Amino acid sequence: MFEDIRNAQGERIDCSFTPAAQERDGEAELVVIGHGVTGNKDREWAVVLASELAAAGFSSLRISFSGNGESEGDFRESTPTKEAADLSAVLDHCGDFRVTFVGHSMGGAVGVLCAKDDKRITRLISLAGMVETADFVSRKFGELTPGVDCMWEKPECPLSQTFVDDMNAIESVMDMAEEIEAPWLFVHGTKDDVVPIEETEMILTRTGGSADFVDIADSDHVFSGEAAGIMARRVVAWMLEH
């Protein structure tokens, strides 16, 4: 089912399926896990989360958005808008699974962009989710020159005008929060210096009190070390409640 997922451009989306260790009663569940800017499906936090999900009876599919990791495509075209379309293409391959989407960082914004219109996402989880996209690109890359410089000095991650323009055009996913109907969990580290935890606290006020929030004490943006396991167990506990 997941061997050859391609987006609208015909680019192959690299993915890794982790089956549940044991079948759960009721509807078949699948957790799709998406990364943030410059990330990929094999980041430590994503692998740890997939393992914890499997032990609890949830199958998962870790994906690298087009242009990232081993997926086909040009990194310079990797924007939230295109990645939301990538996610939609992945959902086309999910058959009868009840799908939960977990998005980290920019993947959190991607989840909002997709879930506000695509009701195939039945649960939404934002891990250190980006809300203010225009502010992010200004804070982190405002002094760089698109087409010349690279994100965080990574030569494989050139900063493109396409990326900057899309982040500015979206500007913020704050107002979109009211359009999300699925149960929603926010998880954020208290020492995140990439996406401020205040962004999660602010968007929570736009969900009408229907969303849940977990803060991970002393965790950085990518839930390094023991924080990955803590995050994963909190995600699993929330899923079991919903």
CATH class: Alpha Beta
User: What is the CATH architecture term?
Assistant: 3-Layer(aba) Sandwich
* Count of individual beta strands: 7
Q: Can you give the mean pLDDT?
A: 96
The whole-angstrom Rg is 17 Å
CATH topology annotation: Rossmann fold
Biggest sheet statistics: 7 strands, mixed
* Count of spatially separate domains: 1
In the sheet with the most strands, the strands line up as 1-3-2-4-5-6-7
CATH homology superfamily name: Alpha/Beta hydrolase fold, catalytic domain
Q: What can you see in these coordinates?
A:
With 242 residues, this protein is of the alpha/beta class. The chain has one domain: Alpha/Beta hydrolase fold, catalytic domain (Rossmann fold). The chain is 32% helix and 17% strand. A seven-stranded mixed beta sheet has the order 1-3-2-4-5-6-7, sandwiched between helices. Helix 1 links the parallel strand 2 and strand 3. Helix 1 (44-55) packs across helix 7, helix 2 (80-91) crosses helix 3 and helix 4 packs antiparallel against helix 5. The longest helix has 16 residues, at 226-241.
Break the fold down into its secondary structure elements and pairings.
Elements: E1 15-18, E2 29-34, H1 44-55, E3 59-63, H2 80-91, E4 98-104, H3 106-115, E5 121-127, H4 133-141, H5 161-170, E6 184-189, H6 197-204, E7 212-216, H7 226-241
Parallel strand pairs: 2-3, 2-4, 4-5, 5-6, 6-7
Antiparallel strand pairs: 1-3
Helix pairs in contact: 1-7, 2-3, 4-5
